[in-house]
């Protein structure tokens, strides 16, 4: 007990000694322990002075725990703090130092632009500049935005890219080329037209298929005009389309003049090569299809790449169907199972025109298609049929938006999703009937087949919206969606949500 009292007495004496010394020292040269200063002030670096480096625990015993800090230096610390953060009274919320670290999405975007290469195709540089300028004003996709709530952005943004090798697996390419298109097979490698791998036979007069470089001047101007247009920001289309506009190197062109029918099918294959190492590559195919008045043609589109490799493909397709014209597109996306695929398809159908799209999605670790269709003329028709086969952990996503501008226009869409183990399928559909569009018939359906308990199917939103400026009667509006998912069964349809905007009377009908 005596020893304890002795230590207590010694500690009290030392405390009194150092306290008296501190109080009697000159004001400008007082000894202040650094731990008594505010943490946010103590950690700031004073301009012109170097902070003492952080030491390992084994080295700390050789250093003193007390810094010699004068009141003048403390004032400089506080002044520096105020300079950096400004007046705290004017700040909303707690003050924070600026965070200069880039997000994963920003690093991904920088990696995409780091592998951009020059092109000699006329007119492409001007389009790239417009796209780059617009892209700087857009926000990167994130989970807080509704269109990307069900999309695995982390899978996309965690990739980094290198220059592509340009090599093509000829055997694989031949395997997916159809016999019906032997005389009309066009190949684009990493977004650029490959004349060596393409075969183009004789075509009807005025018809052009191929790359932009060999395109006749009068057709090239029309293609440039279409390529500069970015689809409306429906379901996140604007960012992907603008990125394609900033990075594209060539344009695949299909031009069918007035009154011409192309009997043979024309096949386009967009191939993405590997980098030869662990990093992925990028590809930005751009396609413009123009079908003039009373024309007819059928186009096959394949998106593929070297199997087992990582890459990112972001195609954009524009389809313009003229008066009383017919355009049919058969589509197959069978990318590598490690690839990422985000695509925007925009179709415009004029009076009495007919557009048909039949697609199948079987590849890509993350695959997303935004389908935008505008029926701008009377009696315009659109048929959109799709199927997503989600296997081996794939995530396939189909977003469709169909707008009816003209009277008596007809649209029909049906999408089927098959989901296997650890896979994810998404369908999101919307039909919008604009004002003064009478006698519209629209049918949008979704079927899903769940084959495993750990698979997932999501229909985040599904409705038909009607905007009418005057009282009228629509004979029937059908908006059909799948019931809650039932394993191993085909599903019955029912109206899930129907929105009417404006004075109108709508007959609802259950479809079974």
TrEMBL record:
Coiled coil ranges: none
GO biological process, one term: iron-sulfur cluster assembly
Pfam entry (one): SUFBD_core
Residues annotated as signal peptide: none
Domain of life (superkingdom): Eukaryota
Record-annotated SUF system FeS cluster assembly SufBD core domain positions: 277-457
InterPro entries from the UniProt entry: Fe-S_cluster_assembly_SufBD (IPR055346), SUF_FeS_clus_asmbl_SufBD_core (IPR000825), SUF_FeS_clus_asmbl_SufBD_sf (IPR037284), SufBD_N (IPR045595)
Domain SUF system FeS cluster assembly SufBD N-terminal intervals: 119-267
Protein name: Uncharacterized protein
Organism of provenance: Lotharella globosa
């Amino acid at each position: 007990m005596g020893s304890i009292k002795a230590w207590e007495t010694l500690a009290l004496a030392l405390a009194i000694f150092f306290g008296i010394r501190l109080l009697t020292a000159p004001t400008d040269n007082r000894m202040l322990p650094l731990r008594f200063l505010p943490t946010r002030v103590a950690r700031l670096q004073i301009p012109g002075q170097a902070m003492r480096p952080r030491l390992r625990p084994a080295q700390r015993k050789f250093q003193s725990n007390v810094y010699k800090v004068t009141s003048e230096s403390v004032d400089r610390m506080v002044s520096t703090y105020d300079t950096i953060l400004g007046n705290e009274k004017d700040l909303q919320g707690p003050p924070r130092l600026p965070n200069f670290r880039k997000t994963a999405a920003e690093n991904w975007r920088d990696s995409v632009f780091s592998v951009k290469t020059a092109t000699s195709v006329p007119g492409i540089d001007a389009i790239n500049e417009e796209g780059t300028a617009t892209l700087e004003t857009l926000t990167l996709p994130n989970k807080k935005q509704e269109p990307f709530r069900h999309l695995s952005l982390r899978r996309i943004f965690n990739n980094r890219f290198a220059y592509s090798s340009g090599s093509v697996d000829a055997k694989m390419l031949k395997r997916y080329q159809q016999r019906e298109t032997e005389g009309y097979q066009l190949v684009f490698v990493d977004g650029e037209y490959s004349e060596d791998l393409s075969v183009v036979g004789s075509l009807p007069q005025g018809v052009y298929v191929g790359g932009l470089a060999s395109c006749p001047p009068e057709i090239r101007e029309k293609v440039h005009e279409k390529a500069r247009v970015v689809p409306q920001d429906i379901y996140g289309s604007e960012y992907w389309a603008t990125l394609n506009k900033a990075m594209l190197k060539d344009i695949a062109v299909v031009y069918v003049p007035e009154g011409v029918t192309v009997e043979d099918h024309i096949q386009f294959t967009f191939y993405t090569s590997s980098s030869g190492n662990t990093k992925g590559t990028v590809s930005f195919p751009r396609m413009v299809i123009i079908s003039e008045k009373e024309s007819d043609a059928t186009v096959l589109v394949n998106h593929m790449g070297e199997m087992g490799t990582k890459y990112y493909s972001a195609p954009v397709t524009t389809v313009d169907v003229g008066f009383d014209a017919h355009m049919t597109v058969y589509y197959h996306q069978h990318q590598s199972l490690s690839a990422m695929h985000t695509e925007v398809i925009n179709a415009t159908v004029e009076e009495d025109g007919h557009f048909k799209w039949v697609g199948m999605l079987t590849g890509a670790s993350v695959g997303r298609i935004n389908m935008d269709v505008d029926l701008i003329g009377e009696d315009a028709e659109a048929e959109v049929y799709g199927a997503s086969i989600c296997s081996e952990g794939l995530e396939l996503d189909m977003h469709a938006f169909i707008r009816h501008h003209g009277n008596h226009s007809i649209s029909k869409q049906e999408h089927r999703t098959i989901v296997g183990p650890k896979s994810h399928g998404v369908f999101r559909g919307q039909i919008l009937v604009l004002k003064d569009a009478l006698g519209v018939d629209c049918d949008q359906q979704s079927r899903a087949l769940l084959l495993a308990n750990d698979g997932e199917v999501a229909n985040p939103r599904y409705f038909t919206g009607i905007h009418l400026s005057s009282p009228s009667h629509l004979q029937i509006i059908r908006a059909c969606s799948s019931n809650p998912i039932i394993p191993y069964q085909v599903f019955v349809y029912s109206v899930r949500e129907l929105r009417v905007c404006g004075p109108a009377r709508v007959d609802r009908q259950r479809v079974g």
